[in-house]
Amino acid sequence: MKFGKSRIFQAGAFWLVLLFWLQLPVSGQDKSCLWKVETETCTTYFLGSIHMLKKENYPLNSVIEDAYNQAQIVVFEVNLDSSQSPRLQQKIMMKAMAKDGKSLQNRLSPEVYERAAREIKETGVDISQFSLFEPWFFAVSLMTLKVRQLGFDPDYGIDNHFFTKAKEDEKPVLGLETLDFQINLFAELNLEDQEAIVQQTLDEIDLMEEELEKMVEFWTAGETTQLEEMVLKSFKDYPHIYNTFLVQRNQKWIGTIESLLKGDQNSLIITGTAHLLGEEGVLSLLEEKGYKVEQL
Hints:
Blueprint: E1 34-38, E2 43-49, H1 62-70, E3 73-76, H2 88-96, H3 104-107, H4 110-121, H5 135-149, H6 158-168, E4 173-175, H7 179-187, H8 191-221, H9 224-232, H10 239-261, E5 267-272, H11 273-276, H12 282-288, E6 293-295
Parallel strand pairs: 2-5, 3-4, 3-5
Antiparallel strand pairs: 1-2, 1-6
């Protein structure tokens, strides 16, 4: 069973909240989801990523492309070279398969399972195909299928766009963490947290259908306060998931990011937008350390 490329894991921590601002009229906006930090030795740019887009969403805002052109190093959540490994899909499937023989239906509450079955059916897939898989894998697959159904593709995501450019331009590419780490984040969740992920996935689908235009409006206008509120509110009922998938990872990344800030080469750091926003986001953590962060 194959529901998408392994790049879906680059979205990492709730990839779900990052799939909303998709059809972006990016030209002519006053602000963008791009920030910079200048030190005595270099300039580091931070770009909030959209992991799936359409071909017509390009070209991007020139300020974003300019930041890439200024960067000598391009940094992603993971080095996407690793996603090309022929063993990766097999590894994901091995991690996703239930080890105790219990079915997906037995792992989810009746209410959640019934709701999940209805949602996946709308994509043309029967939930019985996921019977032997863990709930987290069902959640990833459901969201990927839903977004693809709307015509969006990771091939046109911001990450893939700049990764391809960096390889063509022979710019050094770094990863803040590994794909193995990201996969294990899901695989090591207990059953309660996995059901929470399924529930949040179902909630995010509802939000995507109802609030997409509003979120695009905030993105286009660079209204980060409103955007932050909409992005992070989806975690309100899942504080443990928020801590595991966002807060802890943000804190782990700061060491690597500071080494880039203290270096002598400009860099562009591309992560899921949710990692940058909020009081516990990367940008706030840097401000607490005394760095001046400027939105572009």
